[in-house]
Design brief:
globular, 8 helices, mainly alpha
Length: about 120
């Protein structure tokens, strides 16, 4: 019997969308990165849609992410290491708030950390 995908263990699209909304709220309230979100070119709803699709597709769900690559989205932003760490902290806080298991938290952080080279550019 095969193990459930991370997507299934996270609870599918509805639960992923719920914690993504909280990740965005955390970012908007985090003084380290909130200025970036006050200048966002996309609405909150569009950011939530895109990040939800990215996570769903990246964790084994049937959804298709149709946004920019992480490299393209972050080129020219000069994202600092401290900002990246703040993002990881915000993700972890949202996952914990939604009762995501420790194993799944670790997997999500590993996925996010795996994108670091595409995001952090100083």
């Amino acid at each position: 019997m095969s193990e459930a995908s991370l997507y299934e263990r996270l609870g599918g699209e509805t639960k992923i969308k719920a914690f993504v909304a909280d990740i965005l709220k955390n970012h908007q309230n985090n003084p380290v990165i909130s200025p970036r979100y006050s200048q966002a070119k996309k609405s909150d709803e569009e950011l939530i849609r895109l990040v939800t699709a990215l996570i769903c597709q990246g964790t084994g769900g049937p959804q298709t992410y149709d946004g920019m690559s992480m490299l393209a989205a972050h080129t020219g932003m000069n994202v600092a290491e401290a900002e990246f760490v703040a993002v990881l902290d915000d993700i972890l806080a949202a996952l914990r708030k939604h009762g995501v298991g420790e194993r799944e938290q670790a997997e999500m952080l590993a996925i996010a950390y795996g994108m670091k080279a595409e995001i952090v550019h100083q």
